[in-house]
Structure formats: C-alpha cells, structure tokens
Amino acid sequence: DKVIRVVPESERETQILRAAFNRLKVDLWQPSSPFHIVEGAVADVRVPRNTTRSLLPFLQQANIQYTILISDLQQAIGNQTGGRSHRNRRSLSGYNYEVYHSLEEIEDWMHYLNRTYSDLVHMFSVGKSYEGRPLYVLKLGKRSRPYKKAVWIDCGIHAREWIGPAFCQWFVKEALQTYQTDPDMRKMLTQLYFYIMPVFNVDGYHFSWTHDRFWRKTRSKNMRFHCHGVDANRNWKVKWCDEGASLHPCDDTYCGPFPESEPEVKAVAHFLRKHRKQIKAYLSFHAYAQMLLYPYSYKYATIPNFNCVESAAYNAVNALQSAYGIRYRYGPASSTLYVSSGSSMDWAYKNGIPYAFAFELRDTGHFGFLLPEMLIKPTCTETMLAVKNITLHLLKKCH
C-alpha cells in the first residue's frame, strides 16, 4: 500500500479525482471525503496495493501530477509500533509518554493515577461504548472550593489519530508533574477543573491497534449494509447530516442513522449538557493538518464572541510556534479546513460553551496518521503551550 498526494490544478482534475476516488473506494486521509476535494488543495490518499496498479497509470493518462508520500505503508506501520515487546511498559511509575499506548495500557494508567494522586485526580465513567467498554474521564484539579469553572478535553474521536490520546496523557502528566513548581499550572488546577477523556472512541481505537491501523469511525453495526461504524464527529445534534457528512453507512464521514445514535456521543453530550453552566471551554484533539479551529464548522458565519475567541486562537498559535517554529493556521473551521456538519465543537459552542476549539495536530502529511513516536514529545510540548495559553486566557475576563 502507498500514500500519494494530489493537488488538482483545475476543475476538470477535481471532477476526475472525485469520481475516481468514489469509484475505487480508496481511503482518503485528507480531506475526509471526495466531496471536499477542491482545486489547489491537497488530497492525500491511501492506495491499496491492488488498486495502485490501476490508479497510478490512470492518473498519468489523465495527466494529473501526484507525489508518493509513503511508498510502503506496511513497513511504515512496523516502524511506528515495531519493537514493542521488549519495552518496559507495565511499570506505571516509569510510564513512557513518548510511545503510543494501547487502550488497555491507557486504562491501567488512568486507574494508577486515580489511586496515586487522589488529591488531584478523580476517575469516573460517563457511560459505555457500543461494544460495552467504559468511557473513562479523569477529573483533574485541586478540590479547593465546591464550585469551579471547568475545561473539557477529549482525544481520539477518530480512532487512527493516535497522537490525540498521546497528547491527552501528556497533558495529565505535565499537570501532575509541574503543579508544585509552575505557578501557571498551579493557578490552572486551583481555579479550574479539567475533564479529560484520553480516548473518546474506545472501540475504534482498540480496533486500530488490533485489526486496521487506519480505522476512523466507531464500531456500531449496520444491519442493511455490512459496514461498521459512524463518524463520531458527524453524529452531534447540530445541523446533523448536512453538508460535509455522508448518509451512506460505508463512508468514512457517515453521520449515523440519527443524531447521538452512537452511545459514545450520547454519553458525552449528556455529560456536557448536565455541566454546561460549569464548562467554559471545550477542546478536541485531532490529526493531522497543524491547525487550530473554532466555530463554525457547518456554515460560513462569524460567531458572536468572535473577538475573544480569535484573540485566544492567535495567542495560542504564537505560543505553540515559540517552541519549535511550527506554524499552525487558525480560524473558523468552515473556511480554514472545510464545511462539516454535526461536529462536537459546533455542538459544544451551540450548547453554551463559549470557547470551543478543535486542534489538528502534526504533521501536514509527510507522515500523516503515522506520526513517528520520536515526534510525540515535540508535538505535545508545543501543544501544551497552546492549551495553557487558552486556559489562562479563559481566567482573564474577555469582553
């Protein structure tokens, strides 16, 4: 299997690519559906070995330029998760935050923190997944007073975006390790609670470790089409199944049979609704594109508190860049990335959470979903600066 990049240079090329990718059922990495392929914008596509023989000559015949980003995907996957057996992964005191962890390891780690840091960490479940797994959340913060504002952070809505859960774990580690020494972190944990969900789509994430590294959706069954899963970021009750979502169960952006059809989405939506007065920020972590996005996703329109959100994004992106010079684009999701309906970020914003952001972490396609483990640390370090920046912005009044 290969990953290739195409940038259509005309409307003709755009139409040809949309049609070909639809017909061949290739796995689009960027954008998320053929519908979003537009002139002058990057399309990254994973081409199965048996399709390579027909697709690449077809592109050459149509005179459409392409570049090969990853020439041997199997080998690249091996490079990412190879040599796991001899790693010391069981001892939690020496938990390695610079490698990717399976769902079981992440859950063990959460239990361990819950036992070890009971003054700052409280672990609970908001419900069960389609396959019956608990949906764990860590509540992080000093129990300094009964009522505190809160920040919600989730990672891994899309199963194959492994750097997401890695960041959620990194955030918790940083909070616990620097709480004593870093005045900013102390302020954050004293004045706020953080609800952190390291793996939102637990079934999908588990499946991406055991069966298909590039699985995106949940794992619910569709009886009519023998296809599994719904895009958990198209399943929210905000302009549900409108532009940028698919009605077909086999598509990667399938919106589901109805809003909140997925138990994972329903459980988190229920929790957020219940705590909507307390939660002031919603942060969701995705990959890949190096962007910081805010509402709206489903339409081209300016949000009422645009100035506050825009300045928070601007400052967060600059803080992020200060670490390694990585420049993130930022702006409303619809115009910065593409229009998509039924997203968690739009839903959170519509439900009264004034600061709603979606991060698209590294990189911009060289590794795509296979970001090497050696890039976990720099990615998380710079992202941490952005998140702290947004959080501190939240504690200052913005009008």
Automatic annotation (TrEMBL):
One of its GO terms (cellular component) is extracellular space. The keyword RNA-binding does not apply. Keywords: Carboxypeptidase, Disulfide bond, Hydrolase, Metal-binding, Metalloprotease, Protease, Signal, Zinc. Residues 99-394 form the Peptidase M14 domain. GO terms for biological process: proteolysis. It comes from the Eukaryota. GO terms for molecular function: metallocarboxypeptidase activity; zinc ion binding. The keyword Disulfide bond applies. Its cofactor is Zn(2+). InterPro entries: CARBOXYPEPT_ZN_1, CARBOXYPEPT_ZN_2, CPAH, M14A-like_propep, M14A_act_pep, Peptidase_M14. Signal peptide: none annotated. SMART domains: Zn_pept. PROSITE patterns: CARBOXYPEPT_ZN_1 (PS00132), CARBOXYPEPT_ZN_2 (PS00133), PEPTIDASE_M14 (PS52035). The active site is at E360 (proton donor/acceptor). Belongs to the peptidase M14 family. PANTHER family: CARBOXYPEPTIDASE A6 (PTHR11705:SF18), PROTEASE FAMILY M14 CARBOXYPEPTIDASE A,B (PTHR11705). This is CBPA6 Carboxypeptidase.
